[in-house]
Amino acid sequence: MNQAVSLDADFIIVGAGSAGCVLANRLSASGKYHVVLLEAGPSDRGLYTGFWSHIPIGYGKLFNDRHVNWCYHTEAERELNNRSMYWPRGKLLGGSSGINAMVWARGLPFDYERWAETATGWGWNEVEPVFKALEQYVDDESNHRGHSGPQPVFNTQRDAHGLCDRFIASATAAGYAHTADYNGPNAEGVGHYQITTKNGFRSSAARSYLHPVRSRPNLTVITQAEVTSLNWKDGAIGGVSWLKHGQLQHASASREVILSAGAIGSPLLLQRAGIGCPQLLQQHGIKVRHGNAHVGANLQDHLGADIVFRSHVATLNQELYSLRAKAMSGMKYVLTRRGPLSLSGNHAGGFIRSSETASEPDLQLYFCPMSYTRAPSNTRPMVSPDAFPAFLFGFSPCRPTSRGYVHIRSIDPRATPVMAANYLSTEYDKNLMVEGLKLVRRLAEVGPLADVIQAEMTPGSDAVDTEGLMQHVRDTAWTVYHQCGTCRMGDDASLSVVDATLRVYGVPKLRVVDASVFPHVPSGNTNAPCLMVAEKAAMHLLAEHD
């Protein structure tokens, strides 16, 4: 194997996902620092990749594509009938922001007050201005939202399917609030979702942050770079090695190496570098450089379930099932950049309380005006719906209490990791899944939505008691792909992996910046919080090094 000449940089960023693209933009902005950005996958502008990653609903095509997707699988999940859950993670410029469902949710202020209890400086008053600064939201001129930031956010109300209005009306008839902006001061309630698109195209982090600055002479972006090791020098991390087309390459960092490889990739890189649980490292013959049992622990994810309803009226199934319907929708998209291809699968939803005793919203709702009951397990192909009119109405508990882990399987950097979410390992999580199904049924039985429902297809009339509903959960529950927490931040080094500025405890010149540092999973989708974390991390980095 030939050895390439090493690169010299000030900062090396491992991973060009949401956080990595933000950091590459911000750290290279002044021109003072040479920044190297490494991405294991390809560019998001290839012929095939660029087409499907830029059409919003095209994520259904990339859902199982190993070319741009890590396609992870968990160990058998005991409480889910020993099913192995499929976890797609982006492997291209933009990372998971290039293949996700694009829902933009800041999370609830309560989420960040919880973060601040663990890590100083991460309360709502500190993070809200960062959200505003990064947003480009044109549907609301109030000072609660940002309007000139790099990340476009689009309100789907004008293009959402008409069934969404019925969903909202039924929810309000049942006593829940209608909110015009769940990212604004009135977060609780139901409404239309906001997504990361602009002019009908997906606005991934690569499109919003990286491509506009790609030509900077002090920014080097290397794709197809599979990082094999973090390199130690004088007791600190001094650089990185990676394989590109079978050739080993290196880069040294005079200032810092920053891991932005995600909630799965970042802890694996730490563990292979000798940073992690001593017993695990010794098991694989890895020298313990810094023992920390929390590396790879504290894994959190949102688990969801839904009910399928057959409809008296047309749903998106009729616009996307047949070849003729697909062609018509495609033509509409080409000519107008509108229609179902310009949207996500979930058009509406919101944050509500499962009961009057809940102190904060504890359920996120998802209303999807299509169905795909014939899809194989773990597959949710947005472009292959059912032939008959039907829709999905689902939810996920906002703050699950189950905790899992991610560990290396071997010292081989290409070996698949050992991952377990331990879904439903607490009574709280089990009870809330059952209550969520009951709530969805209640909403479907009132108001305009009830008028168009022909029948409940699944779980159906056989699932009426707690046992039956739990069986439905165990058989069909799905992940919302919000894995986080595996390198959690905190002020207490004995309980955390990184400090409040995201520096790795006990390891100089090394920082982690991605969803793995979340101490608690936010109540909603994780892409917006990930961008916010990266923006704050960039501020810390520039303040420390300038």
Description:
Strand 15, helix 9 and strand 16 form a beta-alpha-beta unit. The mean pLDDT is 95. 53% of the residues are buried. This protein has 546 residues and is of the alpha/beta class. Helices cover 27% and strands 23% of the residues. Strands 1, 2, 11, 12, 13, 14 and 25 form a seven-stranded mixed beta sheet that branches. Strands 7, 17, 18, 19, 20, 23 and 24 form a seven-stranded antiparallel beta sheet that branches. The protein has a three-stranded mixed beta sheet with strand order 5-6-8. It has one domain: FAD/NAD(P)-binding domain (3-Layer(bba) Sandwich), CATH 3.50.50.60.
**Strand share of the residues?**
15-25%
User: What would you report as the Rg, rounded to the nearest angstrom?
Assistant: 23 Å
**Regarding CATH, which class?**
Alpha Beta
Principal-axis shape equals: globular
Number of strands: 25
Helix content estimate? 25-40%
Task: Assign the CATH architecture.
Answer: 3-Layer(bba) Sandwich
Structural class: alpha/beta
Low-confidence parts lasting 5 or more residues at pLDDT below 50? none
**Total number of domains:** 1
Q: Specify the biggest β-sheet.
A: 7 strands, mixed
Tally of alpha and pi helices: 15
Look at the structure and give the mean pLDDT.
95
- CATH fold annotation: FAD/NAD(P)-binding domain
Relevant CATH superfamily = FAD/NAD(P)-binding domain
